[in-house]
Amino acid sequence: MITESIEYLRNSEDWVKTFLIGGVLSLLSALVLPTILVVGYLMRVLRGTMRGDEEPPVFDDWGDLAVDGLKGFVIGFVYFLIPAIVVGIAVFLGVAGAIAGGGSDAAGLFGGLVALVGALVGFVLTIFAAYVTPAALANYAETDRMGAAFDFGELRPILFSGKYATAWLYAFALFIAAGIVSGLLGATGVGAILSAFITFYALVAVYYIFGTTWGEMHHVEMRNDDMPDERATI
């Protein structure tokens, strides 16, 4: 599956154009809107692959792409918000405890312990969020209902299946490998630019894995098009 995911983007005659657009948007991700557009494209990858479409989507219908990307962005934001809050509270309590203790060794130790426990809990929750989010996005992509992304009654069988866990590990390994390459290239100015393109390419491969796995588990039927007005509403 990893080999197929890496080759997926190249299954289109326009793959170079798609790759360049995605890379530029990833390079400008600090501006938020480009990130939303990339997320919108990844949602198209999910929809296409879960229905067995072997040809990757293109960047077009930018309005629909932005709306879809915004919904996907919100779903991911909600899942990763809880770990961020936990870590933030732990750090705040740790600092506040140290200050209240007047800078004593005991107060400093207590504050550090609270911050450490909070960081560990936050790390576990972050891994959990990273594990759940692709399934949540896939459920939304299939139904076009944002509520489906938080329907744990539907998500639970997927999340506890060996097939999804294996796909997640494949995707995680692929993304880590891409991150290492990007990190090494990022040491130079030109490499920093190239890393954005590598990240985009890796994300497409990752969401190919999730979309394909979701389609195999849900037996999602192929449709002629995926225009939002032809899918169910919230």
From TrEMBL:
The chain crosses the membrane at residues 20-42, 77-100, 106-132, 165-185, 191-210. Keywords: Membrane, Transmembrane, Transmembrane helix. The keyword Membrane applies. InterPro entries: DUF4013. It comes from the Archaea. This is DUF4013 domain-containing protein. The lineage of its organism: Archaea, Methanobacteriati, Methanobacteriota, Stenosarchaea group, Halobacteria.
